[in-house]
Amino acid sequence: MGRLHLYYIPFSPPCRAVIMAAKLLEVNINLKFTNLFKNEHKTPEFLKMNSQHTVPVLDDDGFVLYESRAIMRYLANKYGKDDSLYPKDAQKRALVDQALDFDMNTFYQPFIDYWYYCMLGPAPHDEERFQKVPKSFPIFDDMLKKSDFVTGQNISLADISLLAGVSSVNTVGFDIANYPNIVRWFAHCKQAVPDYQELNEKGVQDFKKLWDRFKEKQKTKVKTNS
């Protein structure tokens, strides 16, 4: 196996998802911290790898891949010792892909829309965007009513991706406490991921600090302009 480099920043849920997946796959990756606040993702060198200037980005001995879910699938396909995280069986794999798509399009996207509005938009809060975020919670809770994990009794790539997002969303005010199946699933995931505190929880706390700092900055901006 050649040298794998992952360009990342700890507060990013997609970056943390890839790191947790690599840990479960027992794949060693060289983490290359990419400081978005210093525009290190917009340098000519970085843009050659990813013109979208987003993280994470994987460099596997010259093969470059971005988009976290694509990276996780690639690592599982190429380096997985078995297919437990991403089954080879067509129907089982389809269920994992379905849950990954749910994560990206239904669960995570409304949160990102709200995040960018609050961080970069004209106000620290938008009620319409805010209300869209938890609409996926009852759907996700229902998905978990018959099993410990999203697609069965074993953790999969879909669980890992959702775990990174749910842990982040939950820590900034979107409470999952009223969804018992999600709460149960969350506990199972934290037990299933080795070194969970180091690989995910530290980044979650970084995310919360960043969230709080930007929200306060936006409140000050609104007061100044009023």
UniProtKB/TrEMBL annotation:
GST C-terminal domain location, by residue?
A: 89-210
* Boundaries of every GST N-terminal domain copy: 2-83
What GO biological process, any one, is recorded here? glutathione metabolic process
Keywords of this entry:
Transferase
The cross-references to InterPro entries, in alphabetical order and at most eight, read: Glutathione-S-Trfase_C-like, Glutathione-S-Trfase_C_sf, Glutathione_S-Trfase, Glutathione_S-Trfase_N, GST_C, Thioredoxin-like_sf
Q: Which domain of life is it from?
A: Eukaryota
* Residues that span the membrane, as ranges: none
For molecular function, the Gene Ontology terms on record are: glutathione transferase activity
- One Pfam family here: GST_C
Assembly, in brief, is: Homodimer.
Name of the protein:
Glutathione S-transferase D3
